[in-house]
Known about the structure:
Elements: E1 7-8, E2 19-20, E3 30-32, E4 40-44, E5 50-58, E6 61-64, H1 66-69, E7 78-81, E8 93-102, E9 116-120, E10 145-150, E11 165-170, H2 174-180, E12 189-192, E13 200-201, E14 209-212, E15 215-222, E16 233-237, H3 242-250
Antiparallel strand pairs: 1-13, 2-3, 3-11, 4-5, 4-7, 5-6, 6-9, 7-8, 8-9, 10-11, 10-14, 12-16, 14-15, 15-16
Amino acid sequence: MRRLLVLVLSALLVSSTGVAAADEQVVGGERASIEANPWVVHLLDDRGTQFCGGTLVAPQKVLTAAHCATGRAARDVQVVAGREDKQDRQAGVVAAVTDIWIHRQYVSADQGEDVAVLTLRKSLSYPPLPFAEPTDQALYEPGTELRALGWGRTSENGRTSRYLMQATVPVLPDDYCLDTYPHFLKEDMFCAGYDAGKVDTCQGDSGGPVVAGGKLVGVTSWGEGCARRGKPGVYVRISRYAKDLHPVVDASPPAVVEP
């Protein structure tokens, strides 16, 4: 079963950066502060339901997963920034999307190229997060601790989180990922987690940021279930796509004529 979005946090969660007090919805984990992670956003569908995450990488650009964007019209997607609690309508801003770019070679998450960029109608004042470049390969070394963030489910079949959550997971060796998922593409992906499971991303977290060294190193993409033993999460290796992303992210958004 493909893990499409959400964050599963267990008692093994050890991250402490930008953490607020936990509440009863957290499964042995921790909340994350939006002030400490101002570039993390969530996406709403045309019914106003959160369905994916994303990262502000330029004032008018959000990087997310292709599988979050494919088949959707720009007018049916909104980006919410600066809102830690999804129910706090007074916090943050809601931005309309005017254009969706999906990697031209994308077919499905488990075949790679799972990246998309949303262009916003207006620039946001929150600081963007730089994404990893080809020179940042040290951030993908096995054992490197990463932070994954999102508002997804807090257990495999549970509810999505009301609050922004974060988990810390180590990068696993490519051989481990290949043994687990024979179709794993090490040039395009990396996997992270624990052999025992218990800490993972899950449905609802797709497209959300995975961070190390002050950079966006990954995007939550796919996996088998959530937090299962021997089934780590698989993430987009963002450094692999920097060359494709720069022309889209750095381009000036087209002028939008209001109706």
